[in-house]
Write a structure and sequence with these properties.
Structural class of chain A: alpha/beta
Number of helices of chain A: 10
Largest interface: A-B, 33 and 34 residues
Number of domains of chain A: 1
Shape of chain A: globular
Radius of gyration of chain A: 18 Å
Number of strands of chain A: 8
CATH superfamily of chain A: Ureohydrolase domain
Oligomer: homohexamer
Distance between the termini of chain A: 31 Å
CATH topology of chain A: Arginase, Chain A
Amino acid sequence: ASGTRVPPFAGQPTFLSAPARTVDPVNPDFSGLDVALLGIPMDLGVTNRPGSRFGPRALRTIERIGPYNHVLDCVPVGDLAMADIGDVPFRGRYRLEECHEDIEAWVDKIAEAGVVPISVGGDHSITHPIMKALGRTRPVGMIHIDAHCDTSGPFDGTKFHHGGPFRNAVLDGVLDPQRTIQIGIRGSSEYLWEFSADSGMTVIHAEEITDAGLPGLIARARDIVGDGPTYLSFDIDSLDPAFAPGTGTPEVGGLTTREALALLRGMKGLNLIGADIVEVAPQYDATTNTAQAGAQVLFELASLMCFSQAAGRKSA
Amino acid sequence: ASGTRVPPFAGQPTFLSAPARTVDPVNPDFSGLDVALLGIPMDLGVTNRPGSRFGPRALRTIERIGPYNHVLDCVPVGDLAMADIGDVPFRGRYRLEECHEDIEAWVDKIAEAGVVPISVGGDHSITHPIMKALGRTRPVGMIHIDAHCDTSGPFDGTKFHHGGPFRNAVLDGVLDPQRTIQIGIRGSSEYLWEFSADSGMTVIHAEEITDAGLPGLIARARDIVGDGPTYLSFDIDSLDPAFAPGTGTPEVGGLTTREALALLRGMKGLNLIGADIVEVAPQYDATTNTAQAGAQVLFELASLMCFSQAAGRKSA
Amino acid sequence: ASGTRVPPFAGQPTFLSAPARTVDPVNPDFSGLDVALLGIPMDLGVTNRPGSRFGPRALRTIERIGPYNHVLDCVPVGDLAMADIGDVPFRGRYRLEECHEDIEAWVDKIAEAGVVPISVGGDHSITHPIMKALGRTRPVGMIHIDAHCDTSGPFDGTKFHHGGPFRNAVLDGVLDPQRTIQIGIRGSSEYLWEFSADSGMTVIHAEEITDAGLPGLIARARDIVGDGPTYLSFDIDSLDPAFAPGTGTPEVGGLTTREALALLRGMKGLNLIGADIVEVAPQYDATTNTAQAGAQVLFELASLMCFSQAAGRKSA
Amino acid sequence: ASGTRVPPFAGQPTFLSAPARTVDPVNPDFSGLDVALLGIPMDLGVTNRPGSRFGPRALRTIERIGPYNHVLDCVPVGDLAMADIGDVPFRGRYRLEECHEDIEAWVDKIAEAGVVPISVGGDHSITHPIMKALGRTRPVGMIHIDAHCDTSGPFDGTKFHHGGPFRNAVLDGVLDPQRTIQIGIRGSSEYLWEFSADSGMTVIHAEEITDAGLPGLIARARDIVGDGPTYLSFDIDSLDPAFAPGTGTPEVGGLTTREALALLRGMKGLNLIGADIVEVAPQYDATTNTAQAGAQVLFELASLMCFSQAAGRKSA
Amino acid sequence: ASGTRVPPFAGQPTFLSAPARTVDPVNPDFSGLDVALLGIPMDLGVTNRPGSRFGPRALRTIERIGPYNHVLDCVPVGDLAMADIGDVPFRGRYRLEECHEDIEAWVDKIAEAGVVPISVGGDHSITHPIMKALGRTRPVGMIHIDAHCDTSGPFDGTKFHHGGPFRNAVLDGVLDPQRTIQIGIRGSSEYLWEFSADSGMTVIHAEEITDAGLPGLIARARDIVGDGPTYLSFDIDSLDPAFAPGTGTPEVGGLTTREALALLRGMKGLNLIGADIVEVAPQYDATTNTAQAGAQVLFELASLMCFSQAAGRKSA
Amino acid sequence: ASGTRVPPFAGQPTFLSAPARTVDPVNPDFSGLDVALLGIPMDLGVTNRPGSRFGPRALRTIERIGPYNHVLDCVPVGDLAMADIGDVPFRGRYRLEECHEDIEAWVDKIAEAGVVPISVGGDHSITHPIMKALGRTRPVGMIHIDAHCDTSGPFDGTKFHHGGPFRNAVLDGVLDPQRTIQIGIRGSSEYLWEFSADSGMTVIHAEEITDAGLPGLIARARDIVGDGPTYLSFDIDSLDPAFAPGTGTPEVGGLTTREALALLRGMKGLNLIGADIVEVAPQYDATTNTAQAGAQVLFELASLMCFSQAAGRKSA
């Protein structure tokens, strides 16, 4: 009871203070892992403010997240074999589509190794190639917490921007819109997201949340995704800018962190085959609140894996 | 569906990306407009921190507000003839009363042209001269969202400071206190605002809001102002400093942006003859959250005009 | 009604703009005071980010707190004889235990003079020596609002760090765990706080607050502490980092200021024999929101003293 | 002598408070202008921190630059027909090469109209397409003030990144390396810039400047470029980060603003056919110092045009 | 050698940690003082960004300035009877001219008591009324370190703005232009300051300083003011914004702090009858560098008084 | 020439992007290294603002320092076997003397392995235990660049604070004062540093540097330390706060980075047996300029080791 602890400000920083694991980009070895924490420092898909390429670095340098999740009752970095495996090895930093190919290829290898990826973006366009890797054999369901539906079509010459990953994923057959719920939606681009409704996704706007109540929302979400393979994607801009100013497309009127944590914890036991936290842009984060919130979300995602069939040992 | 959009970071900034309209200060022509968005960069009335003279500039430079309001179902800058007409032409920047005269004269001309003004302050003292212009023929009612009643008397040699515009407006016969509701009130100056109760205004304190519930509050507000001509004045310090730190007289314990947006949207269909958003002081706004919230409020005000008899075409 | 007021930005700053009272460190004279506002600029007990040694200075320089509390209906600096008596005179700034001795000795003298101390930290370890002074003759009860239970045991060679003051206080017989309630608890260190439950404290987690409701929580707290001598300790990290980023061990998912104010005001009439506000670290407070919130809490604590048997005149 | 001035915080902001001129992207009309101030909000070429797409907006919102340059004795916005013509109309925001084509095409039209362009970046890669437009008939000379030579070769699959514009320009035959001087060079990438020496450019490192002395440097620069058509490119990272922190690739040990202004003013009378100020990234500019410095540089560039054969009237 | 020191972060802050002296506004008693440090929190005279009303508070809260000046070899707060006497008691915060009257009246009383005032602004307009008090019987000479000459005429309806105090002082016969030197001048308003040259002031531009050399400048300044009564006015914007961003009208290309300190120390032995440090606006001072520099200047001013006939004991 | 580079924002951060080497705290193995880069996150010795415990983390997260030093012509991380070996393993974070023992023991082991340590503080008190390890057999000489002499005696009950390491080192016989030069000295504590002169150190004040000239200073420094074993200690507060605001005891009037780099590079070929960069406190570093400067200094220190007999291979 009176020993020594490593202070939170010491050492080389990693996600959730998980062990750093060096992975060879050419012949990667992921053996022995249940869950891989990986950075995807790519923000070429943004429509407005860039900067989330620094998101992985920002989350690594947050102190004091973990080890114990008393609400979910688990110690994710201890209960599961989990490591910070570094960042996706990119061929270059200048071409959006090429980066997407690199992401897909890397996550492919992680998934082939039977390891569940939790990714730290980067902008939200990264979820499209991740889903292409994870939903290849069977489309996944999705819990999507965000200010934006991200189901808009091509413009400015590309469909791969961060406003459209879920339209792309559905059209590629890797995301099941019927098993998709989008929570926290707001802003002034609703007219761009008709695809959400048309394809059968369930959309919960931010302004509906207080009346709906979190228990009801959680039940509805669990009902929609069921026990099939499910992906959880958390865009930090789902939070109100008061809680998360450090992001590229902030939208006033969002979730509180207490609501977000309750939502995430309500997903205990879902069959999660991957997850991400995206769009933390530390340039706009004068207090580091956004990175703090992002790291806490990462911790909750890691915790949920303790109870997921796909990832976990606890279920064994 | 695959064209080109102007990025939010491009071009010379205007309020809500509305068209810039150059107006001659001497012989102004407002013809063809339904609504004028105007800046009033004047903060000589503050009791504490100055800085809101930079409020108009701060709101102009916010990106990505609009075009579509999915809650109110309108595209204000498209549905109405609306322009950023620049700032009130002042004779000088050193005399509070002189500035008030200039504001009154300018709004007079706007109103005479049958145009509805939405003003961006500047400190809250500006609402007094605006009301003198708009309530000349008949006192207006008011939805007032603020941390402070702003009904205190003269001190330090003037009654025109930002703590007293609504006392002045009532005493000048341009504001009807019986048709006035003040929402979000708090702080430690209650003893200065006896005039609110004495004159018949309805005062809703911040600490009453959770229990009262927003639907009840909205109903009460609509009942109080009725269908007569009504002004809507939004002081950014009604929001909690967590949501809006960039203001001169912050008060802990305020509204969330979600509450504020719900309140504003609840005013759909009121007969609004003018509105303002005041007290954004960007010097204290390290994250630009305050300006974001202010621009969003401006967007909601513009949206409400789509449904106001006074401004709008939709009612036609 | 038209006189002159001292502007909030003028003069040498003191807590709540209370009168500055110079006290001789060797032969202190506290006569004539009901309540002493004192700074304890000491942060040697932190586990992570230091900086709260600047907490007292930060709270002194906040403008515009007070004079009137309209919810509790009192003017604390007027209703009670209250002064800013400066900071605890320390023998040095390098030894945690020595500082604790100095705090205890100083508060001893304040208490001996029949004066109620309201302390501004500094880190939370300071509450242990304060309690040793105040609970000497009879253990005190406690309203404790915090993100952390602060009942963990020794590590890194000391038990006097800021994670353990209340374990220490119970073991020293100066704090009655049965009359203790801890509100706002969260984070990932729950496994370190078994002492709270084992000793009989009541622990209310942050995630329980929405469902519990504030009126219920207040009633429960009042019931637990009863009418015996009670201490109120407010750690600014009980607030969500959105409201109070400027602290050393922030925890996402906390209280809003509106909740915190309601909780505090719900304690009107308790027999408070001392109180503190701790852990404001202005280095992390880009907007000064944290210091604003801290100063407001200080004002509420001062207001509560107007209704406490121990401090007050109103009860006379 | 006692009239009214427009305050620097009023109105819709433009570069140097020059008149805003709306130009049709399809059929642009630049007639009547001597000099066009244009924004190029594009940062797809950066190697590290993005953000300079917000550079034009940042420079537009700086107050109080101009009107009179007492060192050069001119009033650029008055002496020349000069306007803020808005930003380059891009087809999209996602493809570096496409953006370069759009820049080249737009500057082509400006140059064809006999107007001298002063561009505000954006990252430094923009100077390559600008030079392609301006050096088409005859290669230009260059005064280049920067921390980096920007003459490195392709990597990450492209040669169009911001580390290589001047290699590209030389290889395209639009920049004359013998008439090029690079001033302020430093950092740890010298091994990437062999092309500078190999092609015959003159390179002055930051660490040589104190000993060289500014008058000597100026004389040398004037000698190198002679009286042929010359371009002036100013990268804000030439300044030390103490003077200009808001940039993507800061290098410790740079120029002071006083040195930079002296250098620029020393170029009076050169035959400048265009100029730019690039790499202002306001996300990293907590004090707005970088934007201030950038706007001042823009003012000096505009002033120099008063004395350039290519642009000016004064020479007439 | 091993005693205890009061830490710089402890206690109620005052200028230079000098003793706080409470002065009755109605019947002030300044007896026993050699030098009075006073705040003048007034910024109604600014042309652009307000905020220097918080200058006195900002300088009081800087830690660790003093006690010993090893260059000038003095301990000003010990060698002279010096106190922080608080701020000028104003009748109100809304009228520029009224504030000027209050300043003049207060400094009159200080001067009548034979005490030398060192004032902390506030904007630079305050020096005019100070000079009216100090130069009543004989016009003073002046060492003026600033980015601006501050000799422009009336506009916007007043001559009392912060751009004109020294024109006003000369015209009022309280400042001797022949005994005035202005150092550090730059910016783009030179055309407004013809009065400086016309009246016989010596103007040294920022761009001349490197070549002139500090020893030469100091000699010239000493020669100009001679041994008559002299005032020293230091505008923080004389420093480059890299050193002092926190001010209302920053001008790129200014002095370094090392230059400024050398200049000030070069004035040892002048017959200084008063001094000020003005225009610190902490809202724009993200690093507190400006307030640090301002407090250091204040310390140098206080040190110079040790060697001034007017103030000092050392000369006795 | 057209391959792929790892972007500066990718991966787990280490000092100078050097390889991370995990070292067992109990049985450390440093074999194969020439130089060890180590963090010492300890700030218990500060007299004022704490925070430099986050210094190592701050320097690790700076991007783009290295690989090539064109002035010294070396690639330190390639030319020497160099690794980031993590931080000193401390027994605890609460006791200054205990931490010093742990530092001494750890550096002892590094030195015994024949490895040269370059340490990243932490506060300056760490240099005392480092010197005890490195000067055990023979006292070292020192190049000391700092605002403060750090030779003051005990106070507040300890001599181990950050104001006295070099007095302690001399008295312990591990530092040779005759072979010590202190450069950049200023501030108002000169009276505390008599030991410097008394013991025979050479002290160069900041205000002497311009006149002395850097070449002269460098020659003098080289002459003083000679070719004996020498330590180089760089306190970031030697830089002016404009260049390095992020530190605990800033002193106006300091070095520029260009001067500091020139000084450091002037030490090429000295027999350096260790070095450190201390006092970076990122809490006060709004622009990260201080960490940038600190990382650049670290790079220069690493570069100097390429030419030091003690460390290097080049000399082989």
